[in-house]
Design brief:
alpha+beta, 70 residues
Amino acid sequence: MAKTLQLQFGTTAGKSVMLTVEEPKDSLTRDEIETGMEVIITSNVFQVDGAALTSIKSAKVVERNISEII
C-alpha cells in the first residue's frame, strides 16, 4: 500500500499549492503536521510563480493499493 501526506497551502497570489511527502510516519499528529507547515511558510523556501506560501489550507494522508500486473 502506498501512503502519502498531502499538504495544501495558499499563496500570496490566491492560488493553492500542494506538497506531497511519500511514506510519512504513522505516528504524526495534527499538531506536528501543523507546526511543520507553519515552519515551511515562515522559512519562505518555496515560491510558485513568484508567490510565497501564506496559509495552511489542508493536510491529509492518502493511502492507495497498487497491484502490479506486468
